[in-house]
């Protein structure tokens, strides 16, 4: 998968880069970076990229909340929004994926 060099999430430009030592992904709002691991299966990289883009948008829009009790299985965030906020999210997602072409397995 060819990653874009940057993406705009909720009006902020984020650098996108690959980490060959990781098979997951991270979103860092302070550094404005999205890291995508490339040590896992190539088919999972687009899922990871999309996950981080969506989570980033929701976090920047203050629609992601940290649970008081941390879960051990990466289940420590809660997402909550109404339909209007969902429409804004969809608009942000459309903008974030603008010009991006994904060619998955055939």
Short description:
The chain has two helices and six strands; from the N terminus they run E-E-E-E-H-E-E-H. Strands 1-2-4-3 form a four-stranded mixed sheet. It has a two-stranded antiparallel sheet with strand order 5-6.
Q: Can you list the strand order of the major beta sheet?
A: 1-2-4-3
What does the average pLDDT come to?
88
Low-confidence stretches: none
Q: In the CATH classification, which architecture applies?
A: Orthogonal Bundle
Q: What order do the SSEs take from the amino end to the carboxyl end, as H and E?
A: EEEEHEEH
Looking at the structure, the CATH topology is Arc Repressor Mutant, subunit A
The best one-word shape is globular
Tally of individual helices: 2
Largest sheet: 4 strands, mixed
**Counted beta strands:** 6
What portion of residues is helical?
A: 25-40%
- Tell me the count of domains: 1
Report on the architecture of this protein.
It is a single chain. The protein is globular, with a radius of gyration of 14 Å. The protein has a 4-stranded mixed β-sheet with strand order 1-2-4-3. A two-stranded antiparallel sheet has the order 5-6. The protein has 106 residues and is α+β, with helices and mostly antiparallel strands. The model has no long low-confidence stretch (mean pLDDT 88). Helix content is 30%, strand content 25%. It has one domain (6-96): Orthogonal Bundle (Arc Repressor Mutant, subunit A), CATH 1.10.10. The longest helix has 18 residues, at 43-60. The protein has 2 helices and 6 strands, in the order ββββαββα.
């Amino acid at each position: 998968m060819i990653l874009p060099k940057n993406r705009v999430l909720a009006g902020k430009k984020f650098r996108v880069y690959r980490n060959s030592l990781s098979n997951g992904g991270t979103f860092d709002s302070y550094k404005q970076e999205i890291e995508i691991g490339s040590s896992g299966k190539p088919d999972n990289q687009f899922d990871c990229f999309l996950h981080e883009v969506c989570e980033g948008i929701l976090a920047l829009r203050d629609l992601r909340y940290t649970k008081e009790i941390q879960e051990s299985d990466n289940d420590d965030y809660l997402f909550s929004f109404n339909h209007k906020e969902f429409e804004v999210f969809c608009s942000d997602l459309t903008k974030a994926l603008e010009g991006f072409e994904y060619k998955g397995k055939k």
